[in-house]
Design a protein that fits this description.
With 507 residues, the protein is an alpha/beta fold. It has helices at residues 6-17, 21-24, 72-90, 107-116, 120-137, 153-165, 234-246, 260-275, 307-313, 316-324, 336-362, 371-389, 394-414, 421-437, 443-446, 452-472, 475-490, and strands at residues 32-40, 45-51, 56-65, 95-103, 145-148, 169-171, 177-179, 210-215, 223-224, 229-232, 250-256, 281-287, 290-292, 295-296, 332-333, 493-497, 502-506. Strand 1 (32-40) and strand 2 form a beta hairpin. The two termini are 29 Å apart.
Length: 507
């Protein structure tokens, strides 16, 4: 059993190894550590997740610019974000309040509207609708709050007005508004900026300054403001919408690695300036690219694969498994070999679940208890929980479960003399529960593992063992009976004990 305060001892030990603030530019939040560590793009190392409320966290994801169909590069990003959110919710009991921004006003949308002779808003609505259909087909949970730029123009105007009042932004002769990076000393958290920027724009005071409002252009959508007519710049929208929803402090801000600079750099700068704080988002999570033959998948390179086309060949479970087999921040190279490997893993799990159903229902033998398998299950449960605490290490979890499945399969196939329904069923239920919590949909394909008759047999067997253990005061057997009860409860089967009997209640 883990010693009291060991989680805090581990966190304190980790904190002592962190780089100093001046080097990382990251401020450790005050509050409640939840025992989980995540790689922070500002700190450039794994840091402890510390929440103001120990059970509630805020999360914002940068959503799509809806000018075209989503491709599997987008799918990879959003599936991996969905996995992380499910881990926080399902394994660490965090009530995650999720929001996503939809960019429905943008240069690319206006360009597509002109090319197709459509209104820009019609283009945006068409591709946003398609986006949500794609996300549903991949079993990605929809965020609680969806914020569209077009619905928050007044919020954006007020945000920019505040930056102007703070002298943190300035209006140029064409009616645009730029954020003045020279007035913000903390600019450059994500990467060195002295070699970046656009030196050719003569309207800007500094080459790193960026537009938070674009001045009016004929034939483009525009809105009237106190400083002139125009439309929002790209970066300002997220800051304004997030600040409206979550206020001056955000726990998690997530998106693809391509958004790290300049989008997230600029978001953090203008939000810190607006709220007069040194740190706006506590944890930046960036998802690695999905590449095609070592090249970033992108529409501009014309090397994309649509999500419907993907699902014609592979299932949503297979694609999610491919994402689980890679750490979220690492790039993935899409190829048939990678997808076939993921498909093999999914098939191996499905075959195992079906084999378990056959195994527990086809034997005429009396069930026995296998301490070695039960210990193997307990070790994997503990190892996987630790892996998830360590930067959401899903590859370790999958490989641990495959090893556990292999051991269980060996017992089912090789030991024909003995019959071990209890540990085999509990292993199957653990694997099924674990993968379901990570977003795979396997229950319909696995059949019902535990039949009513098997439940009755298991409960009677456990009662006999427990009664004997109570008489002999065998603590090891009593602990084993408690473990069976607890694992069955996770499978929605509640076992209740009295001095003379045991009975079940199916939830």
């Amino acid at each position: 059993m883990r010693k009291p305060f060991s989680m805090f001892t581990r966190i304190f030990s980790h904190i002592c190894k962190l780089k100093p603030y001046k080097e990382t530019k990251w401020l450790m939040p005050n509050g409640n550590p939840i025992g989980v560590f995540v790689y922070n793009s500002v700190a450039e190392q794994k840091v402890p997740i510390i929440l103001n409320d120990p059970k509630i966290a805020t999360w914002y994801s940068c959503g799509p610019t809806v000018y075209d169909s989503a491709h599997i590069g987008h799918a990879c990003c959003y599936v991996k974000l969905d996995i992380i959110q499910r881990i926080l919710k399902n394994f660490f009991n965090i009530k995650l309040v999720t929001a996503m921004g939809i960019t429905d006003i943008d240069d690319k949308i206006i360009k597509k509207a002109k090319e197709t002779n459509m209104d820009y808003s019609s283009v945006a609505k068409q591709y946003e609708h398609e986006f949500w259909i794609d996300m549903t087909s991949l079993n990605i949970e929809k965020p609680m709050i969806v914020s569209r730029v077009s619905d928050h123009m007044l919020t954006i105007e007020k945000f920019i007005k505040t930056l102007l009042d703070l002298k943190q932004a300035y209006v140029t002769s064409d009616g645009s508004v730029y954020f003045d990076t020279s007035k913000f000393p903390l600019y450059g958290k994500f990467q060195q900026t002295h070699i970046m920027g656009d030196p050719t724009n003569e309207l800007k005071k500094n080459k790193m300054d960026f537009a938070i409002w674009k001045g009016y252009k004929p034939s483009e959508p525009s809105w009237k403001t106190a400083w002139g007519e125009g439309r929002p710049g790209w970066h300002i929208e997220c800051s304004a919408m997030v600040s409206k929803i979550f206020g001056s402090q955000l726990d998690f801000h997530a998106g693809g690695i391509d958004l790290k600079f300049p989008h997230h750099e600029n978001e953090e700068a203008q939000s810190c300036a607006f709220h007069s704080t040194k740190q706006w988002a506590n944890y930046w999570i960036h998802i690695g690219h999905m590449n095609m033959k070592e090249t970033k998948m992108s529409k501009s390179l014309k090397n994309t694969i649509s999500i419907p086309h993907l699902l014609e060949k592979y299932s949503a479970n297979t694609f999610r498994m491919a994402c689980l087999l890679s750490n979220y921040k690492h790039p993935i190279e899409y190829c048939d070999e990678m997808m076939d490997m993921a498909q093999d893993v999914v098939n191996k799990i499905k075959f195992f679940l079906n084999d378990v159903s056959f195994y527990v229902n086809s034997s005429d033998s009396t069930g026995l208890y296998n301490h070695k398998l039960m210990k193997n299950l307990q070790d994997v449960e503990e190892k996987n929980l630790e892996a998830l605490k360590n930067d959401f290490d899903t590859p370790t979890c999958i490989h641990s479960m495959l090893s556990l499945i292999g051991n269980a399969h060996t017992v089912m196939k090789m030991d024909t003399t003995n019959f071990f329904p209890i540990p085999i069923v509990l292993i199957a239920e653990y694997v099924l529960d674990m993968l379901s919590k990570l977003g795979l949909e396997l229950k319909d394909t696995s059949s019902k593992i535990i039949s009513d008759s098997l439940i009755d047999t298991l409960v009677q067997f456990r009662h006999t063992v427990r009664s004997s253990a109570l008489k002999t005061k065998n603590k090891e057997l009593l602990a084993a009976c408690d473990l069976v009860r607890d694992n069955m409860k996770a499978a929605n089967v509640q076992i209740n004990d009295s001095k003379t009997s045991s009975w079940v209640r199916i939830k």
